[in-house]
Amino acid sequence: MELKRKDLLDIKGLDQEEIGLILDTAESFKEVTGREIKKVPTLRGKTVVNLFFEPSTRTRTSFEIAAKRLSADVINFSVSGSSVSKGETLLDTARNIEAMRADFIIIRHQASGAPHILARNLRSSVINAGDGLHEHPTQALLDMFTIRERKGKIEGLTVAIIGDIAHSRVARSNIYGLTRMGARVRIAGPPALIPADVETLGVSVFHSMEEALSGADVIMVLRIQLERQGKNYFPTLREFANLYCLTEGRVGHAKGDVMIMHPGPVNRGIEISPEVADGLSSVILEQVTNGVAVRMAVLYLLSGAGEKLS
Amino acid sequence: MNLLIKNGRIVDPVNQADQVADLLIADGKIMQIGQEISVAPNTETIDATGQWVVPGLIDLHTHLREPGYEYKETIRTGTLAAAAGGFTTICCMPNTRPVNDSQAVTEFILRKAATEGVVNVLPVGAITKGSQGEEISEMGDLREAGCIAVSDDGRSVMNSAVMRRAMEYAKMFRLPVISHCEDTNLSEEGVMNEGRVSTELGLRGIPNASEDVMTARDIELAALTGAHIHIAHVSTRGSVELIRRAKEQGIRVTAETCPHYLVLTDEAVTGYNTHTKMKPPLRTLKDVEAVRKGLREGTIDVIATDHAPHAQVEKEMEFDYAPFGIIGLETALPIALQLVDEGVLTVNEMVLKMSVKPAKLLNIDKGNLSIGAVADIAVIAPYETWVVDPAQLKSKGKNTPFEGWKMKGRVTHTIVGGKVVYKG
Fold first, then answer.
1. Within an 8 Å CB–CB cutoff, is residue A108 touching chain B?
2. N or C: which end of chain A has fewer CB within 10 A?
3. pLDDT digits (tens, 9 = 90+) for B60-119
4. Nearest Cα to A238, choosing from A250, A227, A229, A247?
5. Are B16 and B368 in contact (CB under 8 A)?
6. Spatial separation of the C-alpha atoms in residues A185 and A178, rounded to whole Å
7. Between A91, A110, A112, which is nearest B203 by CB?
8. Which of B204, B207, B208, B210 is nearest to B189 (CA)?
């Protein structure tokens, strides 16, 4: 089995079978990453370029480790600021990289839709590592992997996503993925951080944490970008934390076996209290571990490597 | 030099005419309309059998980009595009570099148009100096130089007191004030309509209210000042409703919409095609339906193009970074004809919206085929089909959302002052 597509741009376009295939494949790779020799020759001779227009340590590192464990050659290409300020267009930059025969381009960009420009114009496989406010598909895949691993399933679970939904590509990808896999998704936050007409994506909207968390199987806390202050999305971080910080008391509204997730990096004491972030229900570090396996699976499935992995 | 247009369907709402006849032009003017007009054997003749002969189209809303942005469009290329679209008169917006807020710029445009242009060009002057929204421009000078209206198009005059003074002053010169209605605080960093599609695409949204609050404000200011406000590029159901009520109250308000607000919704943005990025943004089906209804009922007087050419490299950007605006001169007529096909407008109403009303609104003696009138005429083959290929368009801008669309209706001849300036 392989993914019959050149690129991974979003979760929205994936069907249940494709998501299932990626998660199943990631399981095999997780086994590989548990070995003493954590490397397989699957992508030997292939070149992976990490093209990051936004600072990111964890996602870039995760992709780099994933590619290296598949024996691919990895080049990191960081561009500070936008392509506009550099005077070169995104397409020019990407065409140059393609001219060096990159097999994969993993792109993170502050503008929604930037990976789509590359995918349309290049022969290389393009993987979206986060575009603007749009999607962060591998994050949702690793989140779904982590949920499935812990809970044994996704279907029928109640997942509450808390915080800045409007500006979160993690939220969008998870909403698409989780609803497609049969979970009930709730979102909660102050009105300005809930995007317009979001109910049409199949989620229920809450403003009260207590109601949103009641009976939840999974709580996904989003990072509050500190630069959102001063734009009247909410009056102060203090008040935001008063209303939406995931504290032990609030976790009590969810199911006893609730699992708590966060895509990182964590603002302790703002969207999540330190006790909860580090508590027994937290799977934040497991998410990071699983990220490598999921990204290996995506690279492998897009490479057309076929059935070579047994 | 005489020119005979033979056997066409002459549609001339001003003279309540709709008949198959010949039309004879002499010395740049319409000399005779009738059956089987006999002329000297060597007279230049257009066989318009099966075609429509209408007053040349008038566009209230064109961006010619010259001076300052000649890489996007020039007065030459913009007027060639206009002619290809059946337009014989176009009003050019002042957001050039420098802004048309002085006699010097107005005179420059008119001189260039006279020497290099192929259709009539009527400059629109700025409402405020540099279109900065702070100090009103020297409208007396602008009018004397040849401006036919004022607008800060592309921007909103955000300060209501400035807009009030500008309207009072423009009224003294009988200049319509063309308003780009947008509360830029509400638009924030928005790049498309706010709603389900913007949420799905992760693009920042511009709510309908951004347009509606300014439409409401400008209507109130028109009521206060008695000035003639013309609402540019209406895209929302809310604005249509506000204008309808204002007209019922007798306030001096007129309005235009653009072809794209009649046939496209924000769904078109899916895929991040920057040729679907313009201001105001493409809205939802409910808005499209309301705008169509407003057009049919007469709440919206005019179809204008908001022809806004940009260079390919500017539009080949990330959606967030690409400039707002699309071209429209060469696709407006077939889209209007689509509305005729769909029963939204009659042929007569289409000519009203694209020629008669714009002329009336500007107080110019155009938009009719009266005997003695200057012969500004478009000849249209209404059933001929063609596919939009940006490379074939006359405009320098190739930024059209209609690439690949199969259009019905083609301009075969555009005649300005009795001279054929375009032959399709």
1. no
2. C
3. 999 999 999 999 999 999 999 999 999 999 999 999 999 999 999 999 999 999 999 999
4. A229
5. no
6. 7
7. A112
8. B204
Q: Which ranges constitute the DSSP H helices of B249-391?
A: 259-263, 285-297, 312-315, 332-341, 347-351, 357-362
User: Can you list the pairs that B71-75 forms with residues at least 24 positions away whose Cβ atoms lie under 8 Å?
Assistant: B71/B311, B71/B396, B72/B309, B72/B310, B72/B311, B72/B314, B72/B396, B72/B397, B73/B309, B73/B395, B73/B396, B73/B397, B74/B116, B74/B396, B75/B109, B75/B112, B75/B113, B75/B116, B75/B117, B75/B121
Instruction: Using an 8 Å CB-CB cutoff, list chain A residues near B199.
Output: 172, 195-198, 200-201
CB neighbour list of residue A163: distance below 8 Å, 6 or more residues apart: A188, A189, A193, A221, A222, A223, A224, A244, A271
**Which pTM value belongs to this model?**
0.95
In terms of average pLDDT, the best of A96-100, A302-306, B248-252 is B248-252
CB contact under 8 A, B320 and A134: no
**Is A39 strand, coil or helix?**
coil
Instruction: Assess contact for B97 and B67: CB atoms under 8 A.
Output: yes
Token pair of B67, please? 């001076």
Residue in this structure with the two tokens 């096909």, named with its chain if needed: B341
Cα dihedral: B136, B140, B145, B146 (round 10): 90
Select from A178, A190, A180 the least CA-distant residue to A219: A178
Place of tokens 């399933």: A153
In this structure, what DSSP letter does residue B276 have?
G
Residue A84 has pLDDT above 60, yes or no: no
CA atoms within a 13 Å half-sphere pointing along the CA-CB vector of B166: 30
pLDDT value of residue A3? 84
Alpha helices in A83-180 (DSSP H): 83-86, 90-99, 114-121, 137-151, 169-180
Q: How many residues make up chain B in this entry?
A: 424
The β-bridge partners of B408 are B385
User: How many residue pairs bridge chain A and chain B with CB atoms within 8 Å of each other?
Assistant: 70
- The residues of B annotated with a catalytic role in the active site are 306
Write out the two tokens for B58: 């008038």
Nearest to B132 by CA among B103, B83, B166, B104: B166
Scanning chain A, the segments in alpha helix (DSSP H) are 16-33, 58-69, 83-86, 90-99, 114-121, 137-151, 169-180, 209-213, 237-244, 248-251, 274-277, 284-302
Nearest of B314, B334, B333, B332 to residue B324 by alpha carbon: B314
pLDDT over 90 (residue A2): no
Rounded to whole angstroms, how far apart are CA atoms B215 and A177? Answer: 41
Q: Flag if B316 and A134 touch (Cβ within 8 Å).
A: no
Cα dist from A259 to A54, A158, A179, whole Å: 30, 11, 18
Output the pLDDT for position A89: 86
**What backbone phi and psi angles, to 5 degrees, belong to A291?**
-55, -40
CA distances from B93 to A210, B66, B73, B80, B229 (A): 54, 10, 13, 17, 16
What's the pLDDT score for residue B288? 98
Nearest to A80 by CA among A49, A110, A55: A55
What pLDDT is recorded for position A85? 58
**Helix, strand, or coil (residue B383):** strand
Complete DSSP assignment for B209-231: HHHHHHHHHHHHHHHHH---EEE
CB contact under 8 A, B194 and A12: no
What is the three-class DSSP state of B163?
helix
Please give the helix or strand (H or E) that residue B3 lies within, else none. Answer: strand B2-12
**Contact A131/B317, CB-based, under 8 Å?**
no
The complex scores an ipTM of 0.94
Q: CB within 8 A of A277, min separation 6: which ones?
A: A260, A262, A266, A268, A284
Helix, strand, coil percent content, chain B, rounded in steps of 5: 35, 25, 40
Report which DSSP code applies to B152: -
pLDDT at residue A227, as a whole number: 79
Q: Looking at the partner chain, which of B198, B272, B316 has a beta carbon nearest the beta carbon of A116?
A: B272
Neighbours of A160 (CB within 10 A): 27
